[in-house]
Design a protein that fits this description.
alpha/beta; Rossmann fold; 2 domains; 6-stranded mixed sheet; 11 strands
Amino acid sequence: MDEIVEAPAVVATARYDAQAQFEAFIAAARGLEPVSCGVVHPCDAVSLKGAIDAAEAGLIDPVLIGPKAKIQATAEQIAVSLAGIRVVPALHSHHAASVAAEMATRDELEGLMKGSLHTDEFMHAVLAERTLRTVRRMSQISRFDVPLYHKPLFITDPALNIRPGLAEKGDIVQNAVSLLHMLGVERPKVAILSAVETINPHLVSTLDAAALCKMADRRQIAGADLDGPLAFDNAISAEAARVKGITSSVAGDADILVVPDVESGNMLVKQLEYLAGAASAGVVLGARIPMALTSRADPPRSRVAAAAMVKLVAHAYRRQRP
């Protein structure tokens, strides 16, 4: 059994100002031209308010896709005006997702944001449009400003890939690395998480972690420093890594945490949000356009942050076009 490592004392004056960093992240996106973003089925107060707030912040030009009567009724409920905002009619949530995906294939939209519908409805429509796919598997990356961590922390994949194998994890890692490159981190540090920091043939996640690190050595995964397997404490605490005798440039200073499966990832991100008060923003990469898979329980602030992420990625994609 691993020894228990006491958490190091936190010096109040050295605390990471998560709220200030969150606001700085939003401000960085405001300086760019808004991008056209399809908001799919924004038929509840939270999803519609998030889209309107993101538009008022200068992040996106929202295109609301869904039943017009429901969208208008929701707008009246929260006392917001839809003047000047394009509304594309759709019969129901499934239809709205299909319409949005078709618009994206015609380059009418530079991003998509999920409204008040299930993730599987949304993603089914996107996956049905084969021209939206790329050679990489799609995955979500969530950005967090955590009060007790010294820099933004990115976690992947907490939403899409249920039990990814080694090949899928390679794409998941590369998607996350590509995102950090777009955000200005030249060589991200990637921690491949497991329950332990040693190879255990009974724990597939430790074998996958070791293989991913060797893939990085052979440049099958490029542009980042990888280490794993690492337990969560080793990945984010240099002191925990020191006590356990781990010598690593990643341990205690990770930019990206790669979780073994969707269950562990989903629990981790929700713990950070609900118990640690972390501000978050997520984006899906691996498609031709970025997508925000906001949870139906996410507040408008998280939706604004997701819109900022979509905008930053969309502008990066613009720069990459020939």
